[in-house]
Amino acid sequence: MKEQTKKKAKIIFYSLVAAVLTGFIIANITLLARVEEDHSEVYAELKKFTRVMKIIRENYVEEKNEDTLIEGAIRGMLMSLDPYSSYLSKDEFKEMQIETKGQYGGLGIEITIHNGILTVVAPIEDTPAYRAGIQAGDMIVEIDGKSTKDMTLSEAVKLMRGPKGTKVVLTIMREGKSKPFKVEIVRDIIHIKATKSVQLDDVLYIRLKQFQENAAREILNILKKHKLLNSTNNGKIAGVILDLRNNLGGLLEEAIRVADDFLREGTIVYTKDREGVKNVFEARDDGFEGDFPLIVLVNRGSASASEIVAGALRDNHRALIMGEKTFGKASVQTIFPLEDGAAVRLTTAYYYTPSGELIHGKGIKPDIEARPDENSRMSIEDFMKMSFEERVRKDRVVEKAYELIKAWGVFAKTLQTGSKSAQIH
């Protein structure tokens, strides 16, 4: 009797296990069928892709390997999303990291292509090129014996950069010299400053070239040098001009820190991803933010991080925005490194100004419009001969900002002295 009971229990147990397994298998088969159905279109497109690649490999007029074709396909896929998502090759990713870190192994010269010739704009002070006597306007005709004729800027930069301690020989043509001469330069670590500043009488001018690492710290050091890191202006500086013209952006984190250099409180910016998840960045009262008059200069070349700062300072009533309407890029890109050293730069969110404005495709309209005088534009030859201060003083838009700050100070003093002409009844 006991044996029969045990047999029945076993049969029931195995029947239950079988039923559960059968249900699990049927459920998974159904799920797989659904997945297969959902992805059938994708599989068809992938089949088309491999077919096209096969046609190219077998019939294109020049031989192409699979790596080239696949990289081209990846680039095309990302380019189809928006103008800011892109594939970065190993070299491109390295260059991007150099730009954001603000240092590299090289010579320390700013170069351009002028009249088809690789030309020095200026040597960076206290760098190997500066110490070797390279001058603004020098024409570089060869780099290590290689002609620079028809060479692109990126190709020239690649040849001149390299590890610290290695040598490079430039062949230079200089105005006043009858023939080219060679200059041997030893590469060193070049630290790229994000800022340049000059005191125009009692107005402080700060030019921010890009939002790389430590950009906010550089601005903070400039303000500290001029004793503007406190709650009350010391009276020696009438105001500050922050120039963001032709600043295409950079690191989101640095944009937030730069805005925070001037704000005690308030929202700086917030982002939203595809799910609508909101990420808000607030200013902190660090105890050193001054209350000096502040004018931010912008133009059509001011984009992304520049627009974050301009929008934050405008919406928090901390600064007047002067210049032209900005570019209008309010998308945030995230870098996804790949296993082979390349990377994907992908748009993952949009950012909004503190007032909730999405300026993507619209830009920020300045409080005061000001454009450079077309007749006063200088040639590159004149530009290279001038010092930084001379160039700033000849800038018509800077001049207007300067005049406004001076008038701002006079008006404030009039109010403080209680002049009858300034009293409001």
Note down, in words, how this protein is organized:
This protein has helices at 2-59, 66-79, 90-101, 128-131, 153-160, 215-225, 252-262, 305-315, 380-385, 388-393, 396-417, and strands at 86-88, 103-106, 109-114, 117-123, 139-143, 146-147, 167-173, 181-186, 188-191, 195-200, 203-208, 239-243, 267-272, 278-282, 294-298, 320-323, 331-337, 343-352, 368-369. The chain has 425 residues and is α+β, with helices and mostly antiparallel strands. Among the domains are: 103-191, Roll (Pdz3 Domain), CATH 2.30.42.10; 195-333 and 348-415, 2-enoyl-CoA Hydratase, Chain A, domain 1. Strand 15 (294-298), helix 8 and strand 16 form a beta-alpha-beta unit. Helix 6 (215-225) runs parallel beside helix 7 and helix 7 (252-262) packs parallel to helix 8.
Write out the CATH superfamily name of the domain at 195-333 and 348-415.
2-enoyl-CoA Hydratase, Chain A, domain 1
Strand order of the largest sheet: 10-11-12-15-16-19
Report the mean per-residue pLDDT as an integer: 84
Number of helices: 11
Computed over alpha carbons, the radius of gyration is: 30 Å
Profile the largest sheet. Answer: 6 strands, mixed
What is the approximate shape?
Answer: globular
Supply the CATH architecture of the domain at 195-333 and 348-415: Alpha-Beta Complex
End-to-end separation in angstroms reads: 111 Å
Any low-confidence stretches, pLDDT <50, length ≥5? 6-32, 418-425
Binned, the helix content reads 25-40%
CATH class of the domain at 195-333 and 348-415: Alpha Beta
What is the strand content? 15-25%
Q: Per CATH, what is the topology of the domain at 195-333 and 348-415?
A: 2-enoyl-CoA Hydratase, Chain A, domain 1
The string of secondary-structure elements, in order, is HHEHEEEHEEHEEEEEHEHEEEHEEEEHHH
SS elements, strand count = 19
Structural class: alpha+beta
